[in-house]
């Protein structure tokens, strides 16, 4: 409640319904605010208490009682309630009010209104309507029982400093215009310059306390802004709204400021009721009596239904009454304006063009159609009201065929042309006339209709991404995503596509554009000469606009960091400057080491994203560059890639730790460590059977849901709920996008299982390096590759399925979960295998090979298989060890050499066991027992296997067990295209075998027993099942060793088809590469017994942890999956690689990731020539430590450093003494030193006539671009590189001389 003194001479009770006035002079005004009502009470004299005021108005009401209406009663009831409360707050007696309560109650009984107290107001908010019984209970009987004093007092305290506002939004305390403009400026300053948030979000983030000024606090500023914004459209940015508010508050627009104030004159008559409202007022009482407790909305609904079916005579009665009321209102209003001319609003009359200009504006196509229909309807005598008629015409227009719409659209076009001609004519006749802006009345949709009907072809999307977006929006895959998020989802999917996948859409787009060009040409030829000319002009305008856009100046994108640690530093550098007391880079590295793996991964992924974005932006930037600068900027992006490659050290190109492929960049040499091929992808394909299989051919085809591409039909087959691709199998090669294979200097192969992807890397990629491996790895690897190629080539598929990859997201699991199927490739040819193997250079254990004078590589035994090796990579002072596919078990290969692997700076570990919970010896024993039981039951045993490796141990163990079990008569068949060669070579590689196997050679005995088994006929090798010898020799029961372990290719497919329906037979899976249930999936249901005895002799986690503790590497790098329990054993926490000590760093890596090796170049080896070494006379500064100074010439070639003696330029005779005695000689000898002064160098270039010089700074130094000569000069702190493509002879030597003259000399 507020009390104020004013000189107002009126009394008003404003509740949004009515007003009364009376005159007085110098009176006290009492403002009472409660609920949604405000009362301003003034009176002729100062009454002693509130009760006196009340008596005055009750008396006034009693005189008007007979004429009183419901609203008068409501007003009096509210007034009574408020005055009672006011009296209670002022501690005045309320007994005097009782005399007038009976008068109110008597009037109340004849009314349907209720007394609004605080409790009833809350009920109103809950939308509960009181019945007449409830209304009677609310009569004022005992005023003294009203207990609201405490509530009112607390309410007054809260609202003491708030602004008062009436129920219809009137602002009582409006600020001066100047203050409001200051407020707008302060809000504008608080809004960021690059604001792109929507209005409500930005408003919620504003700090109103900082905006406050003068006497206005933050909440007052916020409230005033909310009052201003109510007059402005708010669905925009806050900055735009502020601009509109300033314009409306400016001197040219006082109407807005004035509109915030209420100028309604109390004597101005109210608007009359319409015919419907008169009917409503008469009907609602009856409805409420008939349906007690009905809400206001329901009453209005029932009245509306009665109004629709009202008697025409009764309707006319209400219309007449409404017209009479309207007439009376207009008379009163005219009289009011006559007495109060200042209240007349001056509005500019909207003049119609017809009255001013003499001709009408053109009508749109729909308006013409509407006009024609109206005339037809009037002729036919149809009586439809305007609303029904309009809705009917709208529906007809919407469903009208395009060919019918064209007629109306063309008519509208003609009208528009006539109007424009008339406008031009009028303008020429009236020179002072300013013509209005005329927009075309033909909408875009109507323009498309015209073009479609005239034969104009539809333009295809402008780029591949637009085409992809269009196709995705048409598909059903995004229907579950909210419409606002669909474009974001599409952009994410587009970014995740590989380049090969994007090229598919580029080709589709090119095809569409070619078709469009052809159709558009035909369309132009079909037009009349005038129309053709107009169309060509229109097309040229568009091209011109596009050309202007493409040639506009675009800022070169900012180069991202080349290292995740550098990105980490840039983000926190400002924050660390105060804390950092040492070198910022050392401080950053310490912080980086303390980061969690997940945080490091985020920085690596962010850097990857930044580099991708930089390349895309740079590509756009190149398109806008002048042609003479393109080569410079192309070289720049190449240099950026080289910097990234130079600063990083290890790349992971494979997702399978047992099929590894890493790229190591060290000392400016690029090494690839293994090139494993992920062959598990073949499990998604149907088996290639040697004999046509009716069962496989008759499998039902699967067509994905919502797939409209007919080319997918026949590519997918379904078997027992699993989907397979009906095509030749495909394989997943190493990731190609991350590394350019042409930059790889050497490939180091650990074992024959890690070289299957070699033809993919060396053939057709520009690879020019050398492949290093041991002799057994080369020969056995050749067997593996030959077998793989021949298996696939002997059962060719007539068609190649590829369209299923485009609908991958609609396919069921596990096919839909496949890793990057678009990157899968068909198997290489045998010619490619031979070509890749020709690049191999064999190397023996402990043999050191020099790589470009920088690194030395050495293979040492890993103990896994014949010829398998771990690699040691040495520089002068650093040591990197690569351990892959190692074993500490005693089998046929030479044991692991651990001593050579100790104390490495970096240890890269991969190729641990794939069966961590299984013991190889246990599995081998179970295999022998299972085979013996099957053979005793007159069943045969099938063992799918590789042609080398563990199979040698299987021959030995199984034959021994069968002999001891009395089954020595059972034959064993070894079927493979390389079976005889594999058995022969295994006995030749004696020096690569274990000591026990080597000792047998000197007895003399053959190291492996399978040679004896072949001689005695127990083991019979065959190349194919269709060999004549095998067909004649085959007898059952037997044991068959054959390929391929995946059961998708090779002879094993035939045996599964042959024996699968017989439960006596058994198939035993020994290779851990393929899950046996997935391998058997396309043959289900199968009666044949299946046993999984996976034998993996690789290091298990216990052995690996022990090995790491013994080797003591400074840094350990391993796949991330080794730091968490395997998926098959999630609760076995011991099956991980442990972090033993805090001193040892452990870094993890995944497919597609890049790791920086924590190696810092500390020292380099420099050779001295013999003559200089002879003349050195070191001085002993402490025991066993000497010191000598050297003056000589440092030469670098092939990464080797050499210091030679200085030579005089004139005599060219070497100086024999380090202290030169001859002063003349020293004057003639000039040697350069120090860093290059760039300003001096550019000045010298200008003096030599080389003026087109462009200087640019980068992270490593500066780049000078000589545009006319097409030359780049990279200047760093310790080196200068000149890349010269100039055709001028001797230009490079000329530049060198200029550069040397700018250096310091002595």
What would you note in describing this structure?
The chain is of the alpha/beta class and 1306 residues long. Helices cover 42% and strands 13% of the residues. It is built from 45 helices and 39 strands. The protein has a 7-stranded mixed beta sheet with strand order 14-12-11-7-6-5-28. Strand 17 (869-874) and strand 18 form a beta hairpin. Helix 7 (177-190) packs antiparallel against helix 11 and helix 33 (920-936) packs across helix 34. The longest helix is centred in the first third of the chain and has 28 residues, at 312-339. The chain is extended and about 135 Å long.
Strand pairing plus helix content: what structural class?
A: alpha/beta
Helix content: 40-55%
Output the number of helix runs: 45
The N- to C-terminal Cα distance equals: 95 Å
Keywords:
1306 residues; alpha/beta; seven-stranded mixed sheet; 45 helices; 42% helix; 13% strand; extended; disordered N terminus
Task: Please outline what is shown here.
This protein is α/β, with parallel strands linked by helices and 1306 residues long. 42% of the residues lie in helices and 13% in strands. Helix 17 packs across helix 18 (386-399).
Question: What are the SSEs and their pairings?
Answer:
Elements: E1 2-5, E2 12-14, E3 28-34, E4 37-42, H1 50-63, H2 70-89, H3 98-109, H4 118-125, H5 132-137, H6 149-158, H7 177-190, H8 199-205, H9 208-211, H10 218-229, H11 238-249, H12 254-259, H13 275-290, H14 296-308, H15 312-339, H16 353-357, H17 365-380, H18 386-399, H19 402-429, H20 444-453, H21 464-474, H22 483-496, H23 499-526, H24 529-550, H25 564-576, H26 584-594, H27 597-623, H28 630-647, E5 650-652, E6 662-666, E7 669-673, H29 694-697, E8 716-719, E9 722-725, E10 730-731, E11 746-748, H30 758-762, E12 770-773, H31 775-793, E13 825-826, H32 830-837, E14 840-842, E15 849-851, E16 855-861, E17 869-874, E18 879-884, E19 906-910, H33 920-936, E20 941-944, H34 950-964, E21 972-975, H35 979-986, H36 995-1001, H37 1010-1016, E22 1019-1022, H38 1028-1033, E23 1039-1042, H39 1051-1059, E24 1066-1069, H40 1076-1080, E25 1089-1092, H41 1101-1111, E26 1115-1119, E27 1145-1149, E28 1154-1155, E29 1166-1168, H42 1170-1175, E30 1179-1182, E31 1185-1187, E32 1193-1197, E33 1200-1204, H43 1223-1228, E34 1232-1233, H44 1238-1247, E35 1253-1258, E36 1261-1266, ...
């Amino acid at each position: 409640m507020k009390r104020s003194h004013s000189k107002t001479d009126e009394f008003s009770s404003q509740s949004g319904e009515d007003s009364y006035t009376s005159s007085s002079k110098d009176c006290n005004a009492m403002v009472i605010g409660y609920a949604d009502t405000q009362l301003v009470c003034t009176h002729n004299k100062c009454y002693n208490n509130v009760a006196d005021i009340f008596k005055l108005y009750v008396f006034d009401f009693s005189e008007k009682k007979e004429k009183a209406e419901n609203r008068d009663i409501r007003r009096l009831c509210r007034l009574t309630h408020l005055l009672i409360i006011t009296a209670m707050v002022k501690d005045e007696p309320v007994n005097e009010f009782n005399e007038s309560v009976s008068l109110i109650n008597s009037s109340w009984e004849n009314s349907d209104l209720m007394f609004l107290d605080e409790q009833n107001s809350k009920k109103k908010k809950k939308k509960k309507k009181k019945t007449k019984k409830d209304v009677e209970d609310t009569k004022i009987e005992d005023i003294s029982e009203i207990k609201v004093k405490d509530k009112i007092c607390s309410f007054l305290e809260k609202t003491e400093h708030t602004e008062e506002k009436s129920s219809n939004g009137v602002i009582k305390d409006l600020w001066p215009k100047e203050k409001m403009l200051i407020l707008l400026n302060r809000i504008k300053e608080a809004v960021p310059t690059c604001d792109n948030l929507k209005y409500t979000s930005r408003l919620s983030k504003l700090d109103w306390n900082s905006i406050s000024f003068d006497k206005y606090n933050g909440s007052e500023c916020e409230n005033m802004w909310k009052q201003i914004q109510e007059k402005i459209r708010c669905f925009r940015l806050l900055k735009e709204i502020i601009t509109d508010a300033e314009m409306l508050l400016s001197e040219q627009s006082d109407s807005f400021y004035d509109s915030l104030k209420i100028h309604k004159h109390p004597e101005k008559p109210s608007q009359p009721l319409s015919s419907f409202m008169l009917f409503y007022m008469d009907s609602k009482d009856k409805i409420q009596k008939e349906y007690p407790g009905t809400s206001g909305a329901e009453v209005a609904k029932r009245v509306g239904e009665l109004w629709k079916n009202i008697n025409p005579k009764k309707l006319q009665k209400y219309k007449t009454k409404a017209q009479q009321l309207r007439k009376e209102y207009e008379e009163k209003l005219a009289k009011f304006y006559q007495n109060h001319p200042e209240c007349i609003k001056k509005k500019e009359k909207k003049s119609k063009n017809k009255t001013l200009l003499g001709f009408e504006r053109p009508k749109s196509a729909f308006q013409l159609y509407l006009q024609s229909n109206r005339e037809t309807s009037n002729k036919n005598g149809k009586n439809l009201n305007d609303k029904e008629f309009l809705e009917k015409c709208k529906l007809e227009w919407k469903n009208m065929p395009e060919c019918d719409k064209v007629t109306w659209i063309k008519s509208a076009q003609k009208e528009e042309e006539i109007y424009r001609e008339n406008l031009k004519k009028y303008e020429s006749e009236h020179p002072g006339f300013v013509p209005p802006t005329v927009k075309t009345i033909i909408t875009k949709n109507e323009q498309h209709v015209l073009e479609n009907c005239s034969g104009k072809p539809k333009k295809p999307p402008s780029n591949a991404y637009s085409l992809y977006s269009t196709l995705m929006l048409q598909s059903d895959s995004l229907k579950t995503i909210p419409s606002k998020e669909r474009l974001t989802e599409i952009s994410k999917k587009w970014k995740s596509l590989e380049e090969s996948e994007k090229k598919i859409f580029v080709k589709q787009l090119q095809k569409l554009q070619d078709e469009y060009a052809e159709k558009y040409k035909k369309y132009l030829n079909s037009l009349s000469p005038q129309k053709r000319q107009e169309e060509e002009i229109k097309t040229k305008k568009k091209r011109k606009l596009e050309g202007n856009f493409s040639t506009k100046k675009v800022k070169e994108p900012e180069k991202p960091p080349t290292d995740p640690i550098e990105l980490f530093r840039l983000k926190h550098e400002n924050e660390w400057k105060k804390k950092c007391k040492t070198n910022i880079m050392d401080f950053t590295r310490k912080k980086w080491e303390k980061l969690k793996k997940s945080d490091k991964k985020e920085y690596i992924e962010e850097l990857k994203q930044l580099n991708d974005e930089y390349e895309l932006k740079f590509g756009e930037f190149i398109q806008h560059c002048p042609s003479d600068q393109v080569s410079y900027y192309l070289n720049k992006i190449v240099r950026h890639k080289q910097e990234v490659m130079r600063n990083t050290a290890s790349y992971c190109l494979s997702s399978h730790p047992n099929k590894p492929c890493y790229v190591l960049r060290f000392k400016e040499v690029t090494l690839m460590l293994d090139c494993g091929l992920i062959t598990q992808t073949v499990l998604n394909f149907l088996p290639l059977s040697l004999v046509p299989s009716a069962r496989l051919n008759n499998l039902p085809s699967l067509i994905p849901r919502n797939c409209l591409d007919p080319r997918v039909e026949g590519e997918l087959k379904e078997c027992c709920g699993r989907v397979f691709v009906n095509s030749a199998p495909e394989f997943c090669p190493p990731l190609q996008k991350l590394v350019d294979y042409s930059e790889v200097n050497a490939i180091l192969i650990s074992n024959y299982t890690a070289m299957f992807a070699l033809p993919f890397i060396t053939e057709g990629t520009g690879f020019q390096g050398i492949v290093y491996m041991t002799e057994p790895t080369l020969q056995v690897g050749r067997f593996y590759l030959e077998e793989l190629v021949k298996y696939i080539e002997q059962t060719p598929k007539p068609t190649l399925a590829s369209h299923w990859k485009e609908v991958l997201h609609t396919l069921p699991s596990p096919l839909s979960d496949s890793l990057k199927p678009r990157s899968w490739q068909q198997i290489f040819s045998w010619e490619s295998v031979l070509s890749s193997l020709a690049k191999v250079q064999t190397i023996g254990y402990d043999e050191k090979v020099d790589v470009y004078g920088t690194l030395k590589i050495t293979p040492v035994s890993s103990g896994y298989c014949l010829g398998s090796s771990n690699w040691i990579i040495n520089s002068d002072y650093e040591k990197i060890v690569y351990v892959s596919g190692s074993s500490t078990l005693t089998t046929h290969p030479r044991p692991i050499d651990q001593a050579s692997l100790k104390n490495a700076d970096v240890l890269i570990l991969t190729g641990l066991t794939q069966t961590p919970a299984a013991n190889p010896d246990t599995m081998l024993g179970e295999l022998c027992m299972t085979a013996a039981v099957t053979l005793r039951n007159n069943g045969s045993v099938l063992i799918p296997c590789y042609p080398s490796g563990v199979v040698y141990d299987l021959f030995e163990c199984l034959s021994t067990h069968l002999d001891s079990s009395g089954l020595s008569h059972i034959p064993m068949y070894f079927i493979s295209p390389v079976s005889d060669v594999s058995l022969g070579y295994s006995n030749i590689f004696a020096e690569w075998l274990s000591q026990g196997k080597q000792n047998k050679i000197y007895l003399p005995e053959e190291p492996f027993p399978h040679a004896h088994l072949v001689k005695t006929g127990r083991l019979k090798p065959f190349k194919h099942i269709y060999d004549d010898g095998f067909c004649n020799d085959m007898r059952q029961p037997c044991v068959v060793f054959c390929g391929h372990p995946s059961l998708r290719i090779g002879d094993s497919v035939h045996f599964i088809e042959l024996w699968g329906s017989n439960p006596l037979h058994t198939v035993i899976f020994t290779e851990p590469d393929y899950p046996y249930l997935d391998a058997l999936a396309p043959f289900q249901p199968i009666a044949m017994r299946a046993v999984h005895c996976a034998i993996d002799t690789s290091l298990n986690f216990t052995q690996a942890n022990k090995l790491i503790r013994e080797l003591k590497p400074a840094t350990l790098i391993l796949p991330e999956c080794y730091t968490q329990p395997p998926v098959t054993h999630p609760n076995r926490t011991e099956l991980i690689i442990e972090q033993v000590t805090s001193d040892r760093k452990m870094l993890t890596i995944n497919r597609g990731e890049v790791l920086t090796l924590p190696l810092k170049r500390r020292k380099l080896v420099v050779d001295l020539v013999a003559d200089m070494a002879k003349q050195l006379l070191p001085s002993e500064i402490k025991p066993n430590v000497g010191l000598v100074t050297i003056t000589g010439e440092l030469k670098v070639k092939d990464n080797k450093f050499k210091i030679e003696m200085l030579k005089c330029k004139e005599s060219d005779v070497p100086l024999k003494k380090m202290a030169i005695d001859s002063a003349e000689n020293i004057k003639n000898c000039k040697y350069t030193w120090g860093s290059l002064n760039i300003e001096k160098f550019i000045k010298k270039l200008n003096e030599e006539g080389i003026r087109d010089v462009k200087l640019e700074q980068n992270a490593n130094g500066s780049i000078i671009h000589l545009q006319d000569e097409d030359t780049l000069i990279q200047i760093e702190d310790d080196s200068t590189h000149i890349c010269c493509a100039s055709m001028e002879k001797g230009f490079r030597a000329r530049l060198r001389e200029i550069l040397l003259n700018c250096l310091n000399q002595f």
